[in-house]
Amino acid sequence: MHHWDCHFYANRFWHPVAAVTALRPGQTLAITLLLQPLLLTWPKGSRPRAFRNRCPHRGVAFQADADTATSRRRLICPYHGWTYNLDGALQSAARESGFENGFDRQAWGLGELPCAIEGPFIWVALTEGAIPLEQQLALIQSTAVAAWSRAMEPRGQAHRRLTCNWKIAHDNTLDDYHVAIAHPTTLHREQGPVRDYVHRFSRYVNLLETPHPDGGLFQTFGLPPWTHVLVWPDGRIALLEFLPEQALQCTMQLQLFAPTGSVDNTEAEAWLRQLLTFLNEDKALVESAQRGYDDSFHPGPAHQLEQRILHWQTLYREQLLEAGMVNLDRSQDAISALRA
Ligand code: FES
Ligand SMILES: [Fe+2]
């Protein structure tokens, strides 16, 4: 997060940080979200909570990031031993009687962040100012009911560094105009004939729904801040995010989930390979588009198959306006150029 406007934008929304099945009561899991060290805990008899993975004494992390959660009753800081329970309360500090002006344990609880379970994921917001999570997920909760309510296990993941701004990559994944041309033997096969495309919108979420060759519907959701949820008729879910990095770079993060026990290793590998094939096709296109952009470039007209892009860009503009971070006239120009 190096751009202040992007930082504000990221703080307005929730982030899927782990599968619900990745954490059990009595466990903790350290993760990094947008360069910020976080600690997920699930106190027994309670619900998952999210804290800054940062000891209030001198800022050191309680534990290192890991792929899997660990069971522990307490969090013990490796620096001077301050000890917390999984609810974030300070239980003891080493040599408490030696503090200069007395010591009040209650004043030194862990910094907590909003955390919730929705669908198969644990979601975290980086501030109290995020929109309600139900709003952010409105269309998913109502149209992907079967997949969204099942227990999912992680079945694969991949990361790619893209040499482009995250907005170009996010736009591309919302772009239903390019699929038949740019992905004829990959994604296009999954999404089928363009004439069958159906678009749906909620305030924050947009959806492309297509009949799947195996029967049922294939659903491609776009949601803020930079997230895509692909849902197959058999309940498999792919979570695709374009995480901002420094200027003109982002990280594509792909995570696959399947209903517990439904996809074996061979199938999981084939599924991942298949998705990476079309995502590599996109990588070449978005990096090329980035090289083509500069102040002298004025984008061509928007096609109706690009309406999910327009929906999201309007949302993005609103967020920047709300933060007072963009000049209204200039932003209107950019959007009307796309709508012309
Ligand atoms: S930094 Fe954690 S106890 Fe000092
Ligand atoms: Fe694409």
Describe what this molecule looks like in 3D:
The protein has 340 residues and is α+β, with helices and mostly antiparallel strands. It is built from 10 helices and 18 strands. The strands form 4 sheets. A 7-stranded antiparallel sheet has the order 12-18-17-16-15-14-13. It is 28% helix and 28% strand. The chain has 2 domains: 105 residues, Rieske Iron-sulfur Protein, CATH 2.102.10.10; 186 residues, Naphthalene 1,2-dioxygenase Alpha Subunit, Chain A, domain 1. Helix 5 crosses helix 8 and helix 9 packs antiparallel against helix 10. The C terminus is likely disordered. Strand 17 and strand 18 form a beta hairpin. The site of fe (ii) ion has 5 residues, from loops.
Secondary-structure blueprint of this entry?
Blueprint: H1 4-11, E1 14-19, E2 27-33, E3 36-41, E4 49-52, E5 70-71, E6 74-76, E7 83-85, E8 90-92, E9 112-113, E10 115-118, E11 121-125, H2 133-136, H3 138-143, H4 145-148, E12 152-162, H5 166-173, H6 179-182, H7 187-191, E13 198-201, E14 206-211, E15 217-223, E16 227-231, E17 237-244, E18 250-259, H8 265-292, H9 307-322, H10 328-339
Antiparallel strand pairs: 1-11, 2-3, 2-5, 3-4, 4-9, 6-7, 7-8, 10-11, 12-18, 13-14, 14-15, 15-16, 16-17, 17-18
Bound molecules: FE2/S2 (inorganic) cluster and fe (ii) ion (FE2).
Fe (ii) ion binds at residues 172, 178, 182-183, 282.
